[in-house]
Each structure stands twice: as structure tokens, then as C-alpha cells.
């Protein structure tokens, strides 16, 4: 891994959990026409054989890339389980593959997320944590906001004793264009509750994700 940078963001307010679709959301046809315009602007002919179906393909790809706008992260965490035999140790889901898009250039952000929480009587189905990551990642993002939204949502809905989220990702807007710096990853973290207040809890989490290289202050 190249240079890494740890950024602690504590100032983002809790999400609007669900982005409201714009009332004037354009039609599929309008979106396809916009892709045609971009192809022409790039200097190619959208009517040549190889490009004829491209606007429709791009719009279908966008439906996947930005499917998170139609997800409700709060609803994903709605079902929790209380029969845990008093389990009150850390739950960690590590190395969650992360695919997002930078809101400045609309190019991929690829990396991994680690999510942990300290249960207070209730646990969630573990896949739901990965689904919350996905619901926010499949939107136009900056990494700091993505990190904060995931942590804030888990904290607000599940109300555990603490939540930790670490994301390590490469931004293609820095590798394939602009400054052209390869091998650079950005590391962001959001620590809430016990993970923020108790250094030993935080250390245990960082050890669990193999995070000696992510020594967070404190
Ligand atoms: N903090 C933060 N910055 C990001 C993220 N994704 C992309 N950026 C940066 O957003 C900035 C946008 O800067 P601008 O100067 O408006 O855009 P630009 O002229 O395309 O900048 P360059 O990328 O330097 O060519 C760039 O520095 C990007 O590297 C992110 O997740 N978090
Ligand atoms: Zn970018």
C-alpha cells in the first residue's frame, strides 16, 4: 500500500437516510440522450454500430452504480435479534468490498470497509451491515461522508454501545486522471461511543482488522 492518511470526521450530521428522488427525475430516454451527447462531445459517432446500444448500456450501468438511492438503510437494520445469551463483545465485519463513485468526477472509488459495533442487547443479521455499506456506497460520494453515514446509521438505528467504521479505498480520479498518483489509498475512520471514548476498545478493533498501520490518534 502507498501513502495513507487517516482522517477523522466527526462533524457530519446523521444522513438524510434516504435520498428523496428528485420530483423532476428525468426519464430513461432523457438519460440515454445525455449519453449520446457525451459521445458526440467526445468526438465519436453515436450512430455507428459499436456505439448504437451504448447509451442504453450506460444507463443500465448507472442503475447498478447508483442503486443506493432507492435503498433505505434504516429499513435494512429494522430486524434485530435479542436472544444473544447476553453477548456483549465486539462484532466485526471486515474486508467488505466497497465500490462507489466519486461525486466530483463520477469515477470509481474501490476499496474495502470494516464495520464493528458493540451490542447493547440487540444484534443484527451480519449481512445487513454489508447492505448498509452498499446502500450508501452506491451513490455519488466522498469517502468521508460515506464513512460517517454508515457509522451514524448503525448508531442511530441499533443504538449499540459504540460503532466503528474504517474505509480504505483508491480513487480513480487520482489514478487515471488529474494528479495520476498510483498506489495511494485514502483511509477514513469514524468512531462512536466506546470506540471513541475507550482507547482499549479502539485498539482491539484495530487489531482485529489488522490495523497496526491505521493507528488512530488517542
Ligand atoms: N476529501 C475528498 N476529496 C476527494 C474525494 N474524492 C475525490 N476528491 C478530491 O476532490 C477534489 C476536487 O477538486 P477540484 O479542484 O474541484 O477538481 P479537479 O480540478 O478535477 O482536481 P484534480 O483532481 O486535482 O485535478 C480533488 O482534489 C479530488 O482528489 C473524497 O472522497 N474525499
Ligand atoms: Zn474524483
Automatic annotation (TrEMBL):
GO terms for cellular component: cytoplasm. Residues 32-209 form the GTP cyclohydrolase I domain. It is an enzyme of class 3 (hydrolase). PROSITE patterns: GTP_CYCLOHYDROL_1_1, GTP_CYCLOHYDROL_1_2. GO terms for biological process: one-carbon metabolic process; tetrahydrobiopterin biosynthetic process; tetrahydrofolate biosynthetic process. Its EC number is 3.5.4.16. It comes from the Bacteria. It holds the Pfam family GTP_cyclohydroI. Pathway: Cofactor biosynthesis; 7,8-dihydroneopterin triphosphate biosynthesis; 7,8-dihydroneopterin triphosphate from GTP: step 1/1. The keyword GTP-binding applies. Signal peptide: none annotated. Keywords: GTP-binding, Hydrolase, Metal-binding, Nucleotide-binding, One-carbon metabolism, Zinc. The keyword Methyltransferase does not apply. HAMAP family: FolE (MF_00223). Belongs to the GTP cyclohydrolase I family. Toroid-shaped homodecamer, composed of two pentamers of five dimers. This is GTP cyclohydrolase 1. It comes from Caldovatus sediminis.
